[in-house]
């Protein structure tokens, strides 16, 4: 490039260029460190999210579902045995904490009653979140992390 070409390019981008000084360079460096720190935090959160979604796919695996369905009758037998033993203790033991038992029974029934619907709603929410984040055209490069894609998109503006 000749000197005239360089001068014309500098004049063309004159509004984007500025003379360097110590204060603006220091503020720019601090700002860039802040952006990189946020990028690091976002990458960590993205990795945690991917691990959680991997755990969700583990529990949706047909072999795991089949194992749970196979062992479920045995779990009902254990639950019935637990109720029988608790009834035996209530009838024959004089110093049985009946008030604590009622509180524990209420909490147990509450957890068992709310666990299944809550897990179904959580699963639906994560499926919706995954489909909204994995839409085509949202980020051009799917091989980058989310924060790298955002930073790259910022540079293209």
Structural overview:
By secondary structure, this protein is mainly alpha-helical. The protein has 5 helices and no strands. α2 packs across α5 (146-156). The longest helix has 38 residues, at 22-59. The radius of gyration is 30 Å and the shape is elongated.
Annotate the secondary structure layout.
Elements: H1 3-12, H2 22-59, H3 62-92, H4 98-133, H5 146-156
Helix pairs in contact: 2-5
Keywords:
157 residues; mainly alpha; 5 helices; elongated
Radius of gyration over C-alpha positions, nearest whole angstrom: 30 Å
Beta fraction of the residues? under 5%
Helix run count? 5
Per DSSP E runs of 2 or more residues, the count of β-strands stands at: 0
User: Can you give the helix content as a percent range?
Assistant: over 70%
The residue ranges in which pLDDT falls below 50 over 5 or more consecutive positions are: none
Straight-line distance between termini: 26 Å
Shape designation: elongated
Structural class: mainly alpha
Mean pLDDT: 80
Order of helices and strands: HHHHH
Question: What multimeric state do the chains show?
Answer: single chain
The profile of the biggest β sheet is: none
């Amino acid at each position: 490039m000749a000197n005239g070409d360089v001068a014309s390019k500098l004049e063309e981008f004159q509004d984007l260029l500025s003379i360097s000084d110590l204060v603006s360079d220091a503020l720019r460096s601090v700002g860039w460190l802040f952006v990189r720190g946020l990028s690091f935090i976002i990458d960590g959160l993205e990795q945690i999210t991917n691990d959680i979604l991997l755990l969700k796919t583990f529990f949706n695996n047909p072999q795991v579902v089949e194992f749970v369905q196979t062992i479920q009758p045995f779990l009902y037998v254990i639950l019935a045995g637990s109720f029988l033993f608790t009834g035996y203790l209530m009838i024959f033991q004089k110093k049985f904490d009946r008030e604590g038992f009622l509180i524990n029974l209420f909490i147990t029934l509450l957890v068992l009653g709310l666990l299944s619907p809550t897990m179904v709603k959580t699963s639906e929410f994560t499926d919706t979140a995954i489909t909204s984040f994995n839409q085509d055209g949202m980020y051009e490069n799917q091989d980058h992390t989310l924060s790298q894609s955002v930073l790259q998109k910022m540079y293209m503006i």
